[in-house]
């Protein structure tokens, strides 16, 4: 027996769900095979169970639509989702209706399908946080923890508002860094391209010209020609290939846990850059921890999530020991100070928060302070990067000009003699 189950037409068009091939048994023990379209394997099993079918085999039919990687959900899409959810819930709109409206308005295909799956599971009685747990790769690490706490306190609209504000600040910071770095990077790229053109195309022509005169060339010119000869030789090509492979291997290694830990540790020791890393990790940690405590989460339970938001494995490792100190009755400030990562201002504000019972407020104030410090540190870093790039370009262009002009003058003087 064969059966095919389809979603309603309006959902099928909007969702972009996948097709699943299944084998199941009816209540009478009869074997049934067919296809069903759903947002996930779990959703497909649930729909078949409602029809009285016990699934024995289920696999996704990808065919020509198979993608090498999943479509990424932009962070700005999640920010808009949080803002609209906060508005809907504050206005008294039921959660299922809010999810349905946002599903229909979503532009990202993967996010649209995700919201459709959330709608099905919430309508079946699951909590929103439990439904979101299957999509941890889409949402920030602190997202689920804040939602779980808000479900306990009944303040989900405030939680979505907090999430929207934090994601917006994160996006603003990224735009600021990107905007500040784009001009120096363009200059650096152009300078490297010009150097490559000069070495590969211009210098060989000048070498032929100088050889015709048989004149003795000055040292800068000989050095420049030696570089040009090496770049175009088999040894130079092999060296370039090795450097490219080494760069690719390093990039892949830096994405492994061990590689990330080493890179994060190096960033914490680099002058100027370390301030940006420390302020960024401190701002993220204090803001998310303050939000979790404000939502009602216990401090030991909130620490791992807040540490993960720092986006630095060294921070995460050392903060992991802070929870042990809290459980041992040492308080929060002293174990936090032993990590030797946070500025003294943060430690002092945490002490004040512990004494006054307003730890979440002090953490929020610390986050606001280091958000400003982070902006200043990023401006300072980019202010150094731009003149260094210009100096590098000037040195390269100046050396090439010196090599060419000195050679021309040398040839001219020898011809005159």
What do you see in this structure?
This protein is of the alpha+beta class and 417 residues long. The chain has 3 domains: 2-65, Ubiquitin-like (UB roll) (Roll), CATH 3.10.20; 75-168, Receptor-associated Protein (Up-down Bundle), CATH 1.20.81; 181-417, Receptor-associated Protein. It is 73% helix and 7% strand. The chain is built from 17 helices and 4 strands. Strands 1-3-2-4 form a 4-stranded mixed β-sheet. Strand 2 (18-25) and strand 3 (31-38) form a beta hairpin. The longest helix is centred in the middle third of the chain and has 58 residues, at 156-213. It starts with a strand and ends with a helix. Mean pLDDT is 79; it is low at 1-16 and 64-69.
Defining key terms:
417 residues, alpha+beta, Ubiquitin-like (UB roll), Receptor-associated Protein, 3 domains, 4-stranded mixed sheet, 17 helices, 73% helix, extended
How would you summarize what this structure contains?
73% of the residues lie in helices and 7% in strands.
């Amino acid at each position: 027996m064969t059966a095919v189950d389809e979603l309603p037409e309006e959902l099928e068009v909007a969702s972009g769900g996948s097709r699943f091939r299944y084998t199941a048994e009816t209540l009478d023990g009869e074997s049934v095979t067919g296809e069903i379209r759903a947002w996930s394997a779990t959703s497909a099993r649930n729909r078949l169970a409602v029809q009285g079918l016990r699934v024995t085999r289920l696999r996704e039919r990808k065919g020509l639509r198979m993608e090498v990687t999943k479509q990424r959900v932009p962070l700005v899409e999640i920010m808009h989702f949080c803002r609209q959810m906060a508005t809907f819930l504050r206005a008294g709109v039921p959660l299922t209706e809010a999810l349905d409206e946002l599903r229909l308005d979503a532009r990202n295909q993967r996010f649209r399908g995700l919201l459709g799956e959330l709608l099905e599971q919430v309508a079946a009685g699951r909590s929103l946080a439990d439904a979101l747990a299957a999509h941890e790769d889409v949402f920030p690490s602190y997202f689920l923890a804040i939602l779980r706490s808000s479900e306990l306190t009944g303040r989900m609209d405030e939680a979505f508002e907090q999430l929207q504000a934090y994601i917006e600040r994160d996006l603003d910071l990224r735009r600021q860094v990107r905007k500040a770095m784009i001009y120096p990077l363009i200059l650096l790229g152009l300078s490297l391209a010009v150097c490559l053109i000069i070495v590969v195309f211009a210098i060989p022509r000048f070498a032929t010209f100088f050889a015709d005169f048989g004149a003795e060339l000055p040292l800068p010119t000989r050095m420049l020609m030696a570089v040009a000869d090496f770049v175009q030789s088999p040894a130079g090509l092999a060296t370039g290939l090795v450097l490219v492979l080494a760069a690719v291997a390093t990039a892949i290694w830096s994405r492994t846990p061990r590689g990330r830990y080493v890179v994060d540790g190096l960033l914490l020791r680099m002058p100027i850059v370390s301030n940006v890393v420390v302020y960024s990790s401190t701002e993220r940690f204090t803001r998310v921890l303050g939000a979790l405590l404000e939502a009602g989460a216990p401090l030991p339970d909130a620490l791992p999530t807040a540490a993960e938001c720092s986006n630095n494995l060294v921070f995460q490792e050392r903060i992991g020991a802070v929870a042990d100190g809290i459980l041992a009755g040492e308080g929060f400030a002293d174990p936090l100070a032993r990590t030797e990562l946070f500025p003294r201002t943060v430690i002092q504000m945490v002490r004040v928060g512990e004494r006054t019972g307003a730890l979440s407020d002090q953490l929020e104030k610390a986050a606001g302070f280091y958000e400003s410090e982070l902006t200043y540190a990023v401006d300072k870093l980019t202010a150094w990067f731009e003149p260094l790039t210009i100096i590098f370009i000037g040195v390269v262009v100046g050396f090439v000009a010196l090599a060419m002009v000195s050679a021309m003058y040398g040839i001219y003087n020898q011809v005159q003699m």
